[in-house]
Specification:
globular, alpha/beta, Rossmann fold
Length: 226
């Protein structure tokens, strides 16, 4: 499944993204949101996997051309990213999908990883055109979702041995969501580390947890993106 880079309107300008289409040519839309590394091959691969499952997947380039494999540089890129601009880029990505001839539903899904996980929940809380939200070990010190405004159901997938997005933080988020009456399905995988879904990082990748998480993602999107 081969995708292509596209341009879409965002905040009066344009932003690029990686678009992957299903073999059928049509399907629900999903925005794939990068980790702090940037729009790297792993994120494009996830978009391709979603396309293989029947979705029209768009991964916007929130760093606008920059990416890295060095943790220190990734941290700098993440902290330099303007949250307001990222939200506008994500809003533009949602609009691009909804206006695309291949997209068959009125609302799109979001799925994000690490920094992108936090932005997945943030985008869903800011944009009622998001119909389903998936968060993989999502965290960012400057991203504060408007949980009261969240209308989409959320699937949260986290790691027990995560020193960044700790189980305590996850349970607190779960408590807040339940107190607000939001629909949230949260799983903490035992014995795995932050980034367990990233098969390009052998030091943290866990195939069993990743396979189960992917199954949950597809089962979650299917009824919520009709």
């Amino acid at each position: 499944m081969a995708g292509q880079m596209v341009q879409f309107p965002s905040n009066g300008g344009t932003t690029s993204g990686y678009l992957s289409l299903p073999a059928s040519g049509k399907g629900p839309g999903v925005v794939v949101i990068q980790e702090w590394w940037g729009l790297v091959p792993h994120i494009k691969d996830i978009a391709d996997r979603l396309a293989g499952a029947g979705y029209v997947a768009l991964a916007p380039d929130l760093y606008h051309g920059q990416s890295t494999t060095a943790p220190d540089q990734a941290g700098k890129l993440m902290m330099a990213m303007r949250i307001d601009q990222a939200e506008k880029d994500l809003r533009g990505a949602v609009q691009y999908l909804l206006s695309h001839k291949a997209v068959t539903v009125r609302k799109v899904g979001t799925v994000g990883f690490c920094m992108g996980g936090a932005l997945s929940l943030y985008a869903a809380s800011k944009n009622l055109q998001v119909g389903a939200c998936v968060v993989f070990y999502g965290g960012h010190p400057n991203v504060r979702p408007d949980l009261k405004n969240l209308q989409a159901p959320m699937l949260g997938l986290y790691a027990e041995k995560d020193g960044f997005v700790t189980p305590e933080l996850v349970r607190e988020l779960e408590k807040q969501l339940k107190q607000l009456g939001k629909k949230a399905d949260i799983h903490i995988y035992p014995g795995v580390q932050h980034g367990f879904f990233n098969d390009t990082r052998k030091e943290v990748y866990n195939q069993a947890a990743a396979d189960d998480a992917w199954r949950r993602v597809l089962e979650f999107f299917k009824p919520n993106l009709k």
